[in-house]
Amino acid sequence: MDAKLIVSFRKEFPRIRIEGEFEFERGFNVILGPSGCGKTTTFRIICGLENPDEGFIRCCEEVFLDTRKDIYLPPQKRRLGVVFQEDNLLPHLSVKENIEFATRKAGGKVENIDELIEHFGLEALKDKKPKELSGGEKQRVAIVRALASNPRALLMDEPFSSLDFRRKMSIMEFLKGLKFNIPVVIVTHDPFETLFLADKVFIMEKGRKVCEGGRELVEGVFSELLKLSGAQPSF
Ligand SMILES: Nc1ncnc2c1ncn2[C@@H]1O[C@H](COP(=O)(O)OP(=O)(O)OP(=O)(O)O)[C@@H](O)[C@H]1O
Fold first, then answer.
1. pTM for the whole structure
2. Does 33 contact ligand 1 (Cβ within 6 A)?
3. What fold does the segment set 1-79+152-235 form as a domain?
4. Which range, of 53-57, 145-149, 213-217, 221-225, averages the lowest pLDDT?
């Protein structure tokens, strides 16, 4: 099965045009760029939360969007796991109930939830309500919840930006250890997160993808930024 997520689109706003072509492969794909470059718009278009003026999106052989053929699959039919900057867990439900609720809504099976909770090391949290969790724990639950319905791809928009460095590291290590067989797309403005996670990076500026590449590009960008900042790496 072709597990690629293929995206191309153009979207006009009064002050900026956002466009790009992306081929997201199995593993970690990072969209990196400064504030206002169009990352969130790209993310929302892939999820189906926003429509481009022109575009084509295909994942695992299924066409999500083809504006020339008037094909538009609504978000819930795309079977994508989505994690936002803020966790969006339902406050009145426990961790386990949150995962069950989302899985049911996505048409998935809830029988294996306990297994899933164990697999992802969430047993100690499963009966807690979101307000009893730290920011990092909430994001771990949000990631497991997004994966529970066996998505075709996992999409995350600035998922670590509200976490302090220690929590960010812990959750990035958790993610890195999961060994994904699907494309994981992470939107961030943070070169360090990119360096830690990316197998492939797509750099955006002023509404456009300006370059893309594998680990060489990721490491090159990071060392250029270190030179610019004058910082001495301590690793
Ligand atoms: N609905 C809209 N109407 C008009 N302009 C918009 C709209 N949505 C986004 N834009 C513009 O598109 C540009 C890109 O916005 P977007 O949120 O995609 O950027 P971003 O890279 O995710 O930024 P940030 O990291 O700050 O969230 C911005 O200049 C924004 O003003």
1. 0.90
2. yes
3. Rossmann fold (3.40.50)
4. 221-225
Mean pLDDT rounded to a whole number for the chain: 89
Distances (CA, A) of 119 to 32, 116, 174: 30, 5, 12
Distance 180 CA to ligand 1 centre (A): 29
Tell me which residue has its CA closest to atom 31 in ligand 1.
36
- Ligand 1 lined by 44 (C-beta under 6 Å): no
Q: What is the pLDDT of residue 136?
A: 83
Residue having the nearest C-alpha atom to atom 6 of ligand 1: 13
Rounded CA gap, 22 and 135, in Å? 31
Q: What ipTM does this complex have?
A: 0.94
The helix (H) or strand (E) run that includes residue 231 is none
pLDDT at position 231: 62
Per domain, the residue ranges of the chain are 1-79+152-235, 90-151
Using CA positions, which residue lies closest to atom 5 of ligand 1? 13
DSSP string covering 49-117, please? SS--SEEEEEETTEEEEETTTTEE--GGGS-EEEE-SS----TTS-HHHHHHHHHHHTT--STTHHHHH
Residue closest via CA to ligand 1's atom 3 equals 13
Which residue has the CA at smallest separation from atom 13 of ligand 1? Answer: 36
Report helix angle 135-148 to 165-176, nearest 10: 20
Lowest mean pLDDT among 29-38, 46-55, 72-81, 166-175: 166-175
13 lines ligand 1 (CB under 6 A): yes
Residue 204 DSSP code: E
